[in-house]
UniProtKB/TrEMBL annotation:
The keyword Plastid does not apply. Keywords: ATP-binding, Nucleotide-binding. The keyword Acyltransferase does not apply. This is DNA replication protein DnaC. CDD domains: AAA. Belongs to the IS21/IS1162 putative ATP-binding protein family. SMART domains: AAA. Residues 99-232 form the AAA+ ATPase domain.
Amino acid sequence: MDKLELIKDYAKKLNLYYLNSNITSIIENADTKDVSYQELLLSVLENELALKDKKAQERRLKDAGFPIIKKIDDFDLNFQRSITKKQINRLIEMDWIDRMYNLIFLGPPGVGKTHLSIALGHRAVDMGYRVSFITMDNLMYSLKTQEISRKSKGKISKILSSSLLIIDELGYLPITREEANLFFQLITALHEQASLIITSNKGLEDWTELLGDPALTTAVLDRITYRCELFNMTGKSYRLEHRESLF
């Protein structure tokens, strides 16, 4: 094995993927530009770190489980006036995650709750936070089956290790008393350990009917709203107003 192949082999074993893939061009570039040894090593290490950061960001994005990618810049503040540009700019600083604050977006379908929650989650991923996105229905399924399903157990493990959990569509489907208790246990486990974003079509005053127990509802809301920003998003459905027609 010649020296070039040996370097590539060592780089692969040391997980130096940039060096392994680009060793030939690195050497040619160093010869052409008469790069010093220090500059050469610094360039290689900088590119290794950049590649590792990129791969870590890609893993976080995959693990987040977003159903679709939404960006803050695509959120139409002219259509949805219940939240201001100033509030958006404050939220994308993401320090509320470090402070264990929760966000609740309430409102009818189509007003931008899911778009905004995914966009904030994507921003959090870009900034290095571990994020999990899940609908309330899928969350209940995962909680109920985690003892018998490896997939469900893995999903709950990721949720419990996340810095931000996004629960979408709370209140769209009825839940049982067992599911309400499991939801309470999860909220308790995450309390002051992670931030939450919850989207719901029901006002907080209607959560008792959803969870089926006034005392349990009070306990859940007590934990969620302890540090919380509540956004009541009103208006028409963006999807209905901008629906596309075949003809």
